[in-house]
Structures are given as C-alpha cells and as structure tokens.
Amino acid sequence: MSAKKVKKPIQGSRRDGTDAVSQLRKSDRTRQSILDGALEFLWTHPFRDLTIKELMLIAGISRSAFYQYFSDVHELMEALLRSLEEDIFVVASRWLEGEGDPVRLLEETMSGLVSVCYKRGPILRAVADAAPMDERLEKSWKAFLQDFDDAVTARIEQHQAAGLIKPFEARPVAIALNRMDAYLLIHQFGRRPRGNRESVKDAILRLWISTLYGEEKVATSASGRRAKRTKTSSSKNS
Amino acid sequence: MSAKKVKKPIQGSRRDGTDAVSQLRKSDRTRQSILDGALEFLWTHPFRDLTIKELMLIAGISRSAFYQYFSDVHELMEALLRSLEEDIFVVASRWLEGEGDPVRLLEETMSGLVSVCYKRGPILRAVADAAPMDERLEKSWKAFLQDFDDAVTARIEQHQAAGLIKPFEARPVAIALNRMDAYLLIHQFGRRPRGNRESVKDAILRLWISTLYGEEKVATSASGRRAKRTKTSSSKNS
DNA sequence: CTTGTTTTCTGACGCCGTGTCAGCAAGAAC
DNA sequence: GTTCTTGCTGACACGGCGTCAGAAAACAAG
C-alpha cells in the first residue's frame, strides 16, 4: 500500500553521515529531487497541472520510479506539508508560547510567518488545492489548520485571563483570524510573482492586533509606526 | 466547446409556460434531473467521488447524454453555484442595502443565509472543493467570494461614515468575516448530518456584531437575548 | 578490477474515467 | 399514420494512473 520502506542502514563504514549530501544514499537524493521538482513546478503552475509524468520529467527520472518514493501525488503533498509545518510552528511559537510584550511577540511571529510563506508559499497553496481531492490529505490539512485554531484559541483565552485581551468567545475569533491568514498568505505568496512581504505582514498584523489587543495598540507596533497610513496595496487584488 | 445550445422556442401554441413543469421541453426536465441528481449525491458524498457515470446512473440516463447538457462536471457545478448565488444575494441584501437598525438587519441576513445554506449546503462545499481543479470554475468561485468582499467592505465603510461602526480598514475585516462564514457554513451544512441551525447562526451573528458594532450590542440581538450564555456546541468540532 | 548482492530504475501492461461521434429512438407537428 | 426535430445511446480513442518483472546501477568484499 504505502511506498514507505524501512531501509536498513548500509552496514559499511563510510556512510556515517559526517559528510552531508554526497554521503546520503542514492534514494534519499532522488526523493529530495522529486520534492524539489514539485516545488519548482508549483511556483509557476497550479496543482491541477502537476502530473506524475510532468514531475518526473523535471526530476529527470522515469515516471514509474515515482512510486518507489510516494504512493501517489497526494502523499508527496503530505510530505511537503509536513516540512512546511515544522518551520511554521517554530515561528508561531514565539507568540503562542513566548513571554513579554504580546504585541511585540505577535509582530515577531507574523514576520516569521510571512518569511516562511514567502520562501515556500506554493506548498500552502497546493496543499489547500489538493486536499479536497484526497481523503488522507484532506485530514492532514484539516488537522494542520485545527492545530492552529486550538493553539490560538488557547493563547487568546490565556491572555484574556491575564486581562490583556477583552473577554469574548475565543474560538470563532481564532478561526476567523487563521482563515484570513491562510487566505492572504496563499494568495499573496502561493505563486510567482509574489506580493510584497511588508504590506502583507502589515495587513495581517494590524488585523490581529486590533482584534485582540485593541485599535490603539496598532500604532505601537513597529510597522504601525513606520507606515501608519499605508494602504496595503496588495490587499486590493485579493 | 460549450454544451450550451440556443434552443429555438417550440413554435406550437401549447408551450406558453403557463402550466409549469409538464409544459417544459423534455430537455429542460432532463437537465434539471441531472442537477437534482448531483445535489442528491453531494448530500452524502464528497465532490471527488462524483463521477459522470455515477451521476447519470442516479439520473437514470446514459452517461454520454450528460454532454448534451454540460461540457463537463465543472460546468455543472457552475450552474449549481449560480442558482445558489441568486438565493444568497437576496437574503444578503437585507443588511447590505436595507434601512433601519443595522443589528436587526444583520440578524435577518444571517438568519436567511443560514436557511439557504441549510437547504442547499452541499453546493457551497462542492464548489469550494471543485474550484481548484478547473480554471473556469475557480474564477467563478473567486468572483463569487469577491463580490461579497466588495459588498461587505462598502457597507462597513458606509456605516463607518455614519458613525455606526468604528473606523478601521474595512476590507481585511470584511474578508476575515466572509471567510469565517464560508468556513462555518461549509463545514456545518455541507453534508448530512448537518449542524444545528440556531447555534451556527448565533456563532456567526455574534462574531459579526461584536466585530462591527461592538461587544455590547451582542446582547441586544434576539439570539443574544435568548441564549446569552450558550456555548455554540457546533463550533467545537469545526 | 572482478564478483556477488542489494538497491534503484525502466518499459510495457491493464485499468478507469473522459469526451466524441454516428446513428438510433422518441416526441411533436401535421 | 408520416415527417421532422430533438433527445439518447453504444462504441470508440485518448490520457493518466499504478503495477510488475526484469534490466541497470550502486555498492561491498575479495
């Protein structure tokens, strides 16, 4: 069923992982080249045009070799999603778990979020597009979003208890903010040419701050100070 | 290319449209039975399982007859979307264009919105799922959402000018609220068994009111009065 | 370098859903 | 009934998917 295979580590002496790339098994490099090819393709094409044939043409290997590494194109997307997930949760943890001025933490998190999505944006877009077509991927994607909803909800409630955020039902607000983020990030960075990092960050940040900590706090954030009157041009065509 | 055909109206005297169903051309009834079959299917199955063969089996006609009416499954979805669109804009116009107490208007609109989606929910879900797979449908879906974003943005700005809503950047808030609505409606009513109408309406309404008109106005709405402390159970598993 | 073993890759195959087409059947008008 | 139009059908070719047996390459040991 699954294409995964438990690989016995090669028993010889040389493959001890000390010399990075060149010392990896062939299969690991091939697998990576498929993942790279997919991302490359998705920078300029919608997911619906990603056929295995096309993909393996980019990777320079025969079509059937694909199935040595992934059981289908959706499993590949899942792999890409997982790799993005790691990066995102790292930057998100700043606001979700950090200590200190919450507005500052939020700014750091959103800044990082924008950076990650700017660099690997198509993954988000393609996974969102592909999810409805495959039950497994759909579940992963839903879980990914829900993890975020849960974390944000918890953090809001925590800050409400601390008097930093006014009391209201946290979850629907968390969902609204997260869906908004997803929508903006996907549309601004999901394909080349990409939108402007700063304006996207400012737009997202402003909405979060004003929703959670109050309109007056918006001005205290760095971007608020820097570009208080900037109309986020990029949000026009979104 | 397109399956559409300009049909000359039958020249005889009887088909004057006075006697509803039985007086329609055969082709119109068949077309409708396909649309009905699709909706029926989508109540219990995800869009990805909707194959033409399956669909025409339900409709009781041969597979190839499908192409007399639609060029492909996405054009069918577009037809369903258009029919839903009409209903939705009717109820939405209440808040978007009505006069009087805005909170009351909003309540009427959300109430209607919930009703429409409760009755024809799978359309929303299926179109959202199918959109990434087809360029044309993707455009229609995007346009549908954007029409809403535009209308809501305009209405917010109008109410801001009238001093009913505090000043803030209207568009991102409009987008966030709309995406939240879409998410909730799709997940609660997109398939059987459906969520609870009242709790969904209350959840949506509360968020809109508190975001636009202020937390204190929530209590003045009918549902706010009726169920001030109800935890919207349905938003748990969303 | 040669040999034997394991890993990786390939071409050919069958499957399934799509969309088209020529021609058959059913319905309407007379 | 006959004629003409409209609606329907089965058969076909196409393209992408996933599998498999066996070829080729990578690797370790001698």
- From the N-terminal CA to the C-terminal CA of chain A, the straight-line distance is 40 Å
Runs of chain A in which pLDDT lies below 50 for 5 or more consecutive residues are 1-7, 10-20, 228-238
Give the helix/strand class of chain A: mainly alpha
CATH secondary-structure class of the largest domain in chain A: Mainly Alpha
Q: Please give the radius of gyration of chain A in angstroms.
A: 21 Å
Roughly what percent helix of chain A? 55-70%
Instruction: Give the biggest beta sheet of chain A.
Output: none
Please tell me the CATH architecture of the largest domain in chain A by its name: Orthogonal Bundle
Counting copies of identical and different chains, the oligomeric state is homodimer
Number of domains of chain A: 2
Which whole number gives the mean pLDDT of chain A? Answer: 87
Query: What string gives the helices and strands of chain A in order?
Result: HHHHHHHHH
In what range is the share of β-strand residues of chain A? under 5%
Secondary structure tally: strands of chain A: 0
What's the overall geometry of chain A? elongated
- CATH topology grouping of the largest domain in chain A: Tetracycline Repressor, domain 2
Largest interface: chains, residues each: A-B, 32 and 34 residues
Pfam family, one (chains A, B): TetR_N
Keywords (chains A, B): DNA-binding, Transcription, Transcription regulation
Protein name (chains A, B): TetR family transcriptional regulator
Organism (chains A, B): Rhodopirellula sallentina SM41
